[in-house]
Amino acid sequence: MEFNHADLFEGLADTIGERTAVVCGGERRTFAELDAEANRLAHHLQDLGVEPRQHVGLHLYNGVEYIAGLLAALKIRAVPINVNYRYVEAELAYLYRDSDIRALVYDVEFEPRVAAVTDRAPMLGHLIAVGGPPSIGSAVPYATALERGKTERGFPPRSGQDVYIIYTGGTTGLPKGAMWHVEDLFMGFGGGNPYGLPRATPQEVIDEAVKATPMVMMAAPPLMHGAAQMATFLAWWMGSTMVYVRKFDAAEVWRAVERERVATLNITGDAMARPLAEELARGSYDVSSLYAVGSTGAILSGAVRDRLQELLPNVMILDNFGSTESGYTASGVAGSSPEKGLRYQPNSVVKLAVLDERLRPVEPGSGQIGTLARSGRVAFGYYNDPEKTARTFVTDEQGTRWLLTGDLATVEPDGTVSIFGRGSQCINTGGEKVFPEEVEAVLKGHPAVFDAVVTGVPDERWGSRVAAVVEPRPGAGVTAAELDAHCRTRLSGYKVPRTYAFVAEMVRSPAGKADYRWARETVESSSGGVSI
Fold it and tell me: Residues in domain AMP-dependent synthetase/ligase (predicted)?
């Protein structure tokens, strides 16, 4: 057995097979049942001709089928490819083609888009349909695929160097596939033990899971995001159960917490925390089993975090810092927030640094701003993108290979890291630097604001001026003057937006991230924009 996710899962199925591994709505599988289902699907993929290192797309909502498909690919040393189900046809065509998928497991709800773009993905030759009979003639129903496969394993030996790819979408540009070796992925996302040092051997992971008192954990984000996939594996390495909802709905999340007696809940920033807080305030749910809510993939603003904490006074609210390429790297320092300044305590088992332009660490307490970087167990590149790989994964004068995260930061005297935001989105106004995330958090702290995105637009005098696109809360009215007054009590004058555009609905990327290009175009073209 190696530090390979398929090896480790099979070890769990053989030792704690009777425990429940996954729950989604009315569907649940024990470790043994999920193992058998994944074996059947894996053998079907093999029979289709899918070989090691070839790619299998997963274009699905959350469900047992998603996680079975993920395991099936890993069992035959193929590479699972997460497909963002929010993508429109042009984006899907790009992803199918860029990822070189050979087979696709898809939800029939997405069939019109799948049918429209499969001919633009020349390597895609096999379709497996989930959720009902397919209308695409060549597609095989998921149930039929399982019937054709064997329950037994009989797979060739695997390696810690097998590849795992997670496609991630940024704030601009096309999605990119972060490539990991599975042993590095295991270590990079908790090492099988999120509360201490990594496990020394694969067998130790199994042994500790057997001894552990099973918990019920829940990932609210979609499995198409790496955060939910990694949360699932971490739950399993702890011998615990992972719960999902098919599609994010705040009421359904709280119903699942109540029904399954969930102990820990994983969410993604304000986009989930805000509706969860609002639903909890107006509903009646038994959440007494819950003791921790952790946000990964996006930062909680102070106002939303405080509201959630008010509603869950006995629950730990945790902010974790990391990325698809870096894994889990740091935890939020108590009291930090985008409004007050983001400070993180680096994970003790990773090498995290802030590097200057010459790739040298900045001196703690110097106030010098550099780029946050991590070395060691990180992704090794981007699929089909050698130029992006070369810019992001660099080697210093001592021969240490670093992942440059793109975040601008400095190191405090106590070793904590203060993060300001993405350098690519930093607004230079009259020589002063403004980070959009800080201003967005302040705006979203106004009771009449539902969402906000801040960007820079050209200005004859200052070079750029700060501008904001604001989505008011339903039924709430807010003016530029009110927001200006709100910001001026919380931000330096040069950070306060000078122009506002109000929209009925915010446009975000299919990955849920701020679309700064759209925001800039909206401000520049808005006839209803207001300048202060």
Answer: 17-383
Instruction: Average the pLDDT over each of 209-218, 265-274, 307-316 and give the range with the smallest value.
Output: 265-274
Q: Is residue 381 part of a domain?
A: yes
Q: Domain check: are 401 and 510 in the same one?
A: no
What tokens were used for 86? 């929010």
Looking at residue 238, which CATH number applies to its domain? 3.40.50.12780
Residues 451 and 413 in one domain: no
Kindly report the number of other CB atoms within 10 A of residue 424's CB atom. 12
Q: Is residue 511 very low, low, confident or very high in pLDDT (cuts 50, 70, 90)?
A: low
To the nearest whole percent, how much of the chain has pLDDT over 70? 96
- pLDDT for 338 equals 74
> How far apart, in whole angstroms, are the C-alpha atoms of residue 505 and residue 469?
10
Residue 56 has what DSSP assignment? E
The Cα angle at residue 507 between residues 442 and 65, in degrees rounded to 5? 110
The CA distance from 393 to 262, in Å, is 38
Q: Is 272 left (phi over 0), alpha (psi -120 to 50) or beta?
A: alpha
Label the pairing between strands 417-422 and 427-429: unpaired
Q: Are residues 410 and 430 in the same domain?
A: no
Q: Where in the sequence is the domain holding 385, given as residue range(s)?
A: 336-422
